[in-house]
Amino acid sequence: MKNNRSIDQTIAPLLKKAREDGVETVWDRLEKQLPQCGFGQLGICCRNCAMGPCRIDPFGEGADKGVCGATADTIAARNFIRMIAAGAAAHSDHGRGVAETLLAVANGKTSDYKVKDEQKLIAVALDFGIKVEGKGTNEILKEVAHLALAEFGNQEGEIHYLKKAPLKRQELWRKKGIAPRGIDREIVEIMHRTHMGVDHDPEHLLLQGMRASLGDGWGGSMLATDIQDILFGTPEPILGTANLGTLLEDEVNILVHGHEPLLSEMIVTAASDKELLALAKSKGAKGINIVGMCCTGQEMLMRHGIPIAGNFLQQELAVVTGAIEAVVVDIQCIMPALSNVAQCYHTKIISTSPIAKFPGTTYIEFHEKNALQMAKQIIKIAVENFPNRPAKKVNIPKEKIEHISGFSYETINYLLGGLFRASVRPLNDNIINGRIRGIAGVVGCNNPKVKHDWAHIEMVKELIKNDVIVLQTGCSAIACAKAGLLVPEAAKKYAGAGLAEVCETVGIPPVLNLGSCVDNSRILIAASAVVKEGGLGDDISDLPAAGAAPEWMSEKAISIGQYFVASGVFTVFGVTFPTLGAKETSEILFKKMENISGANWAYEPDPIKAAKLMITHIDKKRKALGIDKARERVLFDMSKRREL
Ligand code: BF8
Ligand code: SF4
Description:
Blueprint: H1 11-20, H2 26-33, H3 38-42, E1 45-46, E2 54-55, H4 72-106, H5 118-127, H6 137-153, H7 167-176, H8 183-193, H9 202-232, E3 238-242, E4 252-257, H10 261-270, H11 274-282, E5 288-293, H12 294-304, E6 308-310, H13 315-320, E7 326-329, H14 338-343, E8 348-351, E9 362-363, H15 371-385, E10 401-405, H16 409-415, H17 425-432, E11 438-442, H18 454-465, E12 468-472, H19 474-482, H20 489-494, H21 497-506, E13 511-513, H22 520-533, E14 545-549, H23 555-566, E15 570-573, H24 583-597, E16 601-603, H25 607-625, H26 628-643
Parallel strand pairs: 4-5, 4-7, 5-6, 7-8, 8-9, 11-12, 11-14, 12-13, 14-15, 15-16
Antiparallel strand pairs: 1-2, 3-10
Helix pairs in contact: 4-6, 4-8, 4-9, 4-23, 4-24, 5-6, 5-9, 8-9, 9-22, 9-23, 10-12, 10-15, 18-25
This protein binds FE(4)-NI(1)-S(5) CLUSTER with Oxygen (BF8) and iron/sulfur cluster.
């Protein structure tokens, strides 16, 4: 058995079991795909019309243009922004879904959801410019829901939330013509511009990519985060457990997987229903154990401390444990292979979204008006499936580790805040005095082309060793939870002296889990707050900060990367980069973007080298801010202290 597939100890034994059970996994299928198409990998094939498919010879010997005359640069830029369109659409449709639920709550069309965080509702109302004085919660709620939904179809002007960015950034977006008018509109315009025979100028195409991605980061994703906080509560630090050892031998195990917390929130509530618990007992189970995976899991973890069973590459292996009665899926990052894997076990895959059907699974359509009842129905199916679990087919890994998650921007503000009021002042001060060298956002997926979790962990360890505090979301955060980096003790063990000192004083881990992938918007808000607090420049691009997705795979990751860059954050991607076959297009992304948005993309598959690129960037920004000297002094003091 090859053990070069993951650094996670649960993987090798479960892959062995999968093989014995006759189950094919993502790694087997990748092997069958090899060698993958070189044109596709380089981003220089096009099938946008029926004169094609066309491909450009990267060696300059064969065709240098498509049938229509499109060059490699045009083709790669079009493909790249189509990825952004898909990613932004996925995040934003999620935002729309929760906004619709908010409206349903306001209109009394559902009694299963309520406003849990009124303070956040008021804050969002104020962001929308709603006058709140003298208005009741429901009136405010209605106005917020209407304005939130209007952001999607807005045709002119710009979306409201851009105003949450530093002023200088807003002006830059307007000047460059990349302030999104409406969330949907920019996505549609990408599809229009990339249709055969429309827009062919790589830079012009990439600018539209920026505009649509900003509609994601500062629009759809940010709305998703804020509305979920209103409905389900703004996360606060919470103790959780991670990895497949969170599955329980003697309980009904239900895995919630996907992205939207709408249904899973109800499942968590329904799991403590007395009748269902009694039913579970009558079937021989001691209880009902809900565990999460991917971003739905992150949402449940952040707000309820629900155990997180794993990240993207563990979804099939979770079923291979033979211990799961039901996998409940909603949208995004759900491998269609799950239904094949489940056929070898008693596990039921229950799909729930009207836009995401999986052949061979049980389909129970989700509606917000009967959400709780539906959650109960799903749990009942799982409970009744418990007696079908054959003991001899069960192998639950031992690996299970504690971690602290739940760091919303609001809690960072509070924990790292001043003595008398919440503010990021002490964070800024610690950056200025050099104890904290800079901030990194390390996010994104797993990809079977990279040893599972390895690049995340290598990169994050290198960053914190160099006093860079790491903010995380999505599968990257889950990787770090499993590796023991999301605990305060990790500061002493892995962080540099300066960062460790800050973490120990405040009692936080050096790596902070901010939630699901739509919660990357929390990173944008934190960055804006640091700028507004003062002393570190007047734009996000002035900050000693960088972003990365070392194991990315999804189109959503490209949209995130693009809105990081368009917001002024230097961003490094690993694995592969989708424009490598197009020289000019790559040059724009890697070098010329800085002239447009104040930040570039970079591609570096080696996680340590990538971390070094980030640190070099951070140091460059420190120098420009004139705070590089402060750091040298701190380091000198530390080594002096060690000598003593
Ligand atoms: O949105 S990190 S594999 S689960 S795409 Fe998917 Fe990537 Fe995981 Fe969440 Ni984000
Ligand atoms: Fe080929 Fe041009 Fe059609 Fe693309 S749009 S498939 S490059 S002819």
